[in-house]
Amino acid sequence: MLMNVAQPSHTPRSRRGTPPASDWLENRNAAVRNDPDALLKELVSRRGLPPTEARLLVLRILRDDTDGHMSAEQLCRALVKQDFATGVSTFKSAIYDLNLAGVLSRVIAPLNSNRAQALYEIADKPWHRHLYCTGCERLIEICDEVIEQRISHQFAVAGLTQANLDFARAGKCLACANAESVHG
Ligand SMILES: [Zn+2]
Ligand SMILES: [Zn+2]
């Protein structure tokens, strides 16, 4: 009896012998189809951390958040809503471990006139900065290659390595500024 052996799909290779980007993307998409947390597990393992349930939980909450930047308190509130067996202290240390390992990066933004808050995001994007509206408490990401080049240059001149941290520049968006001028 003839066995029906599945043949690997042959996609054309580039002339240099490295798989084309489409192969890599296809493999990655297939992995994600089989396990929706595949990318998160990869992020954690790549930084040498075992992908524990608490760590994946932190990353899942951040990935599924529309804004993608959350404080430890907001993350804990989301955890409690999901009613998981993971204790809050285990969950909090997962946040700090992920940040130390570079899986999460931190943005410091104003909380009120004399306090600041740390917001966490998954560090899977290119280097970027943040603007912050103090009215609606919205973070706006700015990806500007020229700014990043200038900053990297200044870090190199000073002999410093950039930390996994950004300080958001505060301002007021048009809607908040208009609302203020109407009410006050
Ligand atoms: Zn605003
Ligand atoms: Zn960001």
Automatic annotation (TrEMBL):
The keyword Iron applies. GO terms for molecular function: DNA-binding transcription factor activity; transcription cis-regulatory region binding; zinc ion binding. SUPFAM superfamilies: Winged helix' DNA-binding domain. Zn(2+) binds at C133, C136, C173, C176. Fe cation binds at E148. Residues 1-11 have a biased composition (Polar residues). Pfam families: FUR. Its cofactor is Zn(2+); Mn(2+); Fe(2+). Binds 1 zinc ion per subunit. Binds 1 Mn(2+) or Fe(2+) ion per subunit. It comes from the Bacteria. Keywords: Iron, Metal-binding, Zinc. One of its GO terms (biological process) is regulation of secondary metabolite biosynthetic process. This is Ferric uptake regulation protein. It comes from Cupriavidus taiwanensis.
